[in-house]
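User: Last request for today: this protein with zinc ion, please.
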Amino acid sequence: MQLTKYGVRLVDIYGIIGAKDVNTLEHLGVEYNWSVYSPTKKSEILEAERAKDEMRDIMSRMIGAEIRYVRLGYRVRQAPYGYMNEKVETPHGRRVILAPHPEEAQWIKKMFDMRVQGNLSDNEIIEEINGMGFTTRSKNRRNVEDKKQIIGKVGGNPLNVKQFWRFIQSPIYAGVNVESWTQGQAIKGQFKGLVSMDTYNKANRGKRTLVEDKDGIKLYKERPPEYLVNKGARNKDFPFKRVVMCPECEKPLFGSASRGKMGKYYPAYHCNKRGHYFRVSKGDFDSTIAEFVKGLKFEPDYAEKLMEAVMQEWDKRQKNTQSDKSVIEKKIQELENSARLIADKIRILSSETAIRYMEEDLAKIETEMIELKEQLAKKDENTINLEEVMGTIKYFLEHLEDLLLDQSKPEKSATLFSLIFQMAPTYAELVSGTPKLAPFVALKDDYAMSENQMVSQLGLEPRTHCLRGNCSNQLSYWPTRAPGGNRTHNLLFRRQTLYPIELQVRKCKLYHPDV
Ligand SMILES: [Zn+2]
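Assistant: Here's the final one, the structure of the complex with zinc ion:
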């Protein structure tokens, strides 16, 4: 009817839309807008409503069933990156589950592994992954009017940091589905994830935690504990304010300078907003720290165990590098094959345009291959001399005190300071010399008194407690005077060996997520 004014008339095969209009005043030979009508209008509207009803019925049945299956842990949509859909026989009939994608799955696993390892920053991980030839899925773009026509490609991009975080945070890689169809609840899928829940939790460092108990699985998006919340800008005048806790409430201290009557400033660490009053001048505070550090030493066989652990880690990384290399080599081989195929095709072709396009493709493959080969060479360069590494470790062990009390880098020494404790110490504990130290350090006096007891406690065994101190970033602090060391060397060293120490940092990170 809306079409009538444009002179269009619909004809249908069911005969619901009548072909004739009726003029109710025809016998009088007069015609008005209102007197002309289509006698089938009512049934047309009825038919339209009936069709809508049917659509609603069908959609309710279909989407309803899909929602039910999703809640049972099956899949109804396109598989996420790293997976592919697979149909299997189940107690609920032939249903779709996710299976590891033969090529994509390895990237996801690699990302999680590297993140759990914890010695690389996210950007370094991304660089590494891209260097090995990662690309996102690519899809053909089609002409909207003619779906047979391909007009371009989307996807096929290298990894960026946001995508990386999306991958790491997505619980589907631990085999758990959370979406609006599950009303935000975590549902264990009817398939195995690409990584274990444990790996997922470690990689997310407390920001997302999957917990499975008898009531099912829960995904916690945790608010970081109070003492980890950023309390304003870091102040390099008070680097220890989040490392050493208030003796009364065991929460981080504040640091500020109050102005005296004569206009002089008195810097101090304090805690006075939580119902009690604690204040130590910065001078006293710093000398307490210095005193404490001077009383520290490494456990005697720590050096040995550290070397041992380094050696093991070294072996492991060496093996990893080897497998990374073979992945790159495989990729190069694939590219070579496709280059050869294109070259063969060019020989047969006669169209100039086609040949030009082919040549462009060939050039693209060529550059990609060169990049990969560079990466391969870099992998070889990155292997460093184990002896040099051991030398640097020795330096570290011998210069603990200097590193902890380096005045020129107060924030970094504070971070390093926090690493020698099992739990963030309170000021009172520092004064009395009774904080919970990490297993590899001891107090000199203490040690003389109870040698046997201490020896039995130490080691590199996994610990149950975590350092609660402020260790925000990576352990980027390193002496510039290390034997035979330049910056690159130190960086390499840090990456490849400082494992036990970085382990501490990582454990901290569990409680101090700064993704
Ligand atoms: Zn307090």
